[in-house]
């Protein structure tokens, strides 16, 4: 079986057999495009048999028959449409591979020079010099169409990263540790970089706000080009993105890590009430100090802590704020005079059952009233009234009102609009990724990590710490023409601050599988631990600033699957053995 790679996303091949499709699946291909009409010759396999083989192996099958030597503009448009929706890597085939490679070349003409295309196809074994005039015409036509006074085109970068937060900075550092010569650009509009895991401790009176913030310019690696602007849209078929100012940036590989949006406007009355009337949230750095002010000043009354429907970043954060508040009220002799309620849209206290018993002991100790399937829907700050939607035991939805003296809110959360409304998103608006390789499901040179992704892991900084090396390895593999082999297992960590000085260190991966970092004799994650508090307060901030953002991957080395040799490599090995 002969496979000729044109790009990390697509390879072409001569006529395949059903057995060849099995080999293609083992090589990591996700989609097959058949460009050869059925019954073109008597010796070719049935298209039906090929399709059945592909579908049996879980591969996507696309049938786009093209007459040899008669590729039309409609054929090019159809091929481009298939490439836009196909999950990569893609393997296209015809009788010799020439038709498929020609379709690819003509589809790329709007964004690549004819010389670059012809060099690529020649290296793959296909001389398409006869197409030079047509390639040039398509390229010039596209140049007139896509260049305008409002768009400035920049030189190509090896890697463009959208987002300069924890995910973007960590993956940039991991890439540069592996290959310092890479040309990397980061698109980030903010001037400040925040250590967001510290905001819970600001709201608990442990950290000062200033300890969780640094200037973005001091975080950016010296060799990275910083585009101080926001991303506006994607054009993956042209391997480029557009900034809010109309500037266009091209890339060989794109990493999408812009974080998520805290949707304060989704709850009527909330935004206007924040920072006053006893309404606060540790999810905003400017409000975390107000949380601590309220905790100190509240003498009696009702304190309500809310959690919206998933997904949210750091699903334990709403509880952390509650536990630290209760601990302070208990230490100062006020807890008996304060009614504490935890209103969560979920049906359980925590998503991983192994940690619930320890948490329930604190719920009982603090006298917290649990209200499951109870979602905050509106806030009236001046009257200190919160309205909730409640699912009763029969599945009916009703609305109730609760009065409060202190209200700590975790807002609903969603993907950024420029991601949600793009071809990169899933049906829910999140970045559509393979949960193991973190490669986009349809675009082979696009990866993602962090809170904007649809992977079913906890959205935490600890998850990013494990994801960044995986993405770095896989991006470099794709740039070298290889199939991604680094695997992310869903690891996330949630240090649940159940009292000042003790933490239940929840560490788990996909499916809620426990993934403790330390042996149980040192730290038993399902039980409160003083050592875990020391880790959270003293060690993790230092590791974040000086390790994770510098490309040091302590206890975060990725799992890399064994390399499968290509046909060319296997042939070389065979020849070598014969010579020996």
TrEMBL record:
- Domain (Beta-lactamase hydrolase-like protein phosphatase-like): residue spans on this chain: 5-109
Q: What residues does the FAD/NAD(P)-binding domain cover? A: 157-275
Query: What Pfam families does UniProt report for this protein, alphabetically?
Result: BLH_phosphatase, Pyr_redox_2
Q: Heme as a keyword? A: no
Q: InterPro entries annotated for this entry? A: BLH_phosphatase-like, FAD/NAD-bd_sf, FAD/NAD-binding_dom, Prot-tyrosine_phosphatase-like, Sulphide_quinone_reductase
Task: Report keywords, A-Z.
Answer: Transferase
CDD domains documented for this protein? PTP-bact (cd14503)
Give the Gene Ontology MF terms in alphabetical order: transferase activity
Q: What is this protein called?
A: TIGR01244 family sulfur transferase
């Amino acid at each position: 079986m002969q496979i000729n790679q044109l790009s990390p996303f697509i390879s072409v091949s001569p006529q395949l057999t059903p057995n060849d499709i099995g080999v293609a699946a083992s090589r990591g291909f996700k989609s097959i495009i058949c460009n050869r009409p059925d019954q073109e010759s008597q010796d070719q396999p049935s298209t039906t048999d090929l399709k059945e083989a592909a579908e049996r192996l879980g591969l996507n099958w696309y049938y786009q028959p093209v007459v040899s030597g008669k590729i039309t503009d409609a054929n090019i448009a159809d091929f481009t449409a298939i490439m836009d929706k196909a999950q990569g890597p893609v393997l296209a085939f015809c009788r010799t591979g020439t038709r498929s490679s020609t379709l690819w070349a003509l589809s790329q003409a709007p964004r690549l020079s004819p010389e670059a295309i012809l060099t690529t196809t020649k290296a793959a074994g296909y001389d398409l010099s006869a197409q030079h005039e047509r390639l040039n015409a398509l390229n010039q036509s596209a140049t007139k169409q896509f260049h305008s006074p409002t768009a400035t085109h920049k030189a190509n970068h090896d890697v463009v990263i959208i987002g300069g937060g924890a995910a973007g900075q960590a993956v940039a550092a991991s890439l540069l540790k592996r290959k310092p010569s890479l040309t990397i650009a980061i698109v980030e509009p903010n001037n400040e970089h925040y250590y967001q895991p510290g905001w819970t401790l600001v709201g608990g009176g442990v950290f000062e706000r200033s300890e969780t913030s640094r200037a973005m310019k001091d975080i950016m690696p010296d060799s990275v080009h910083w585009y101080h602007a926001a991303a506006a849209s994607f054009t993956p078929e042209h391997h480029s993105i557009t900034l809010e100012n109309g500037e266009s940036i091209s890339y060989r590989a794109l990493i999408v890590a812009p974080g998520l949006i805290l949707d304060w406007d989704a709850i009527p009355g909330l935004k206007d009430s924040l920072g006053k009337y006893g309404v606060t949230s540790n999810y905003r750095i400017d409000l975390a100090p107000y949380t601590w002010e309220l905790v100190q000043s509240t003498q009696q009354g009702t304190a309500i802590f809310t959690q919206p429907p998933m997904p949210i970043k750091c699903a334990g954060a709403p509880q952390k704020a509650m536990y630290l508040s209760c601990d302070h009220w208990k230490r100062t002799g006020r807890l008996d005079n304060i009614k504490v309620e935890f209103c969560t849209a979920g049906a359980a206290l925590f998503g991983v059952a192994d940690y619930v018993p320890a948490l329930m002991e604190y719920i009982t100790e603090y006298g917290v009233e649990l209200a499951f399937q109870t979602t905050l829907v509106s806030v009236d700050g001046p009257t200190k009234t919160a309205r909730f939607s409640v699912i009763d035991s029969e599945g009916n939805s009703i609305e109730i009102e609760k009065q409060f003296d202190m209200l700590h809110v975790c807002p609903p959360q969603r993907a950024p609009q420029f991601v949600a409304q793009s071809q990169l998103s899933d049906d829910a608006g999140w970045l559509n990724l393979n949960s193991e390789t973190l490669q986009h499901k349809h675009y082979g040179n696009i990866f993602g990590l962090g809170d904007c992704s649809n992977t079913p892991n906890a959205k935490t900084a600890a998850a990013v710490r494990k994801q960044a090396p995986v993405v770095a390895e896989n991006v470099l593999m794709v740039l070298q023409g290889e199939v991604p082999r680094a695997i992310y297992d869903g690891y996330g960590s949630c240090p649940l601050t159940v009292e000042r000085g003790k933490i239940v260190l929840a560490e788990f991966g996909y499916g809620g599988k426990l993934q403790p970092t330390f042996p149980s004799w040192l730290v038993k994650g399902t039980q409160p631990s003083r050592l875990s508090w020391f880790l959270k307060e003293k060690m993790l901030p230092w590791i974040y600033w000086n390790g994770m953002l510098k490309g040091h991957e302590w206890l975060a080395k990725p799992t890399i699957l064994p390399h499968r040799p290509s046909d060319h490599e296997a042939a070389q090995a065979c020849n070598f053995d014969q010579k020996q």
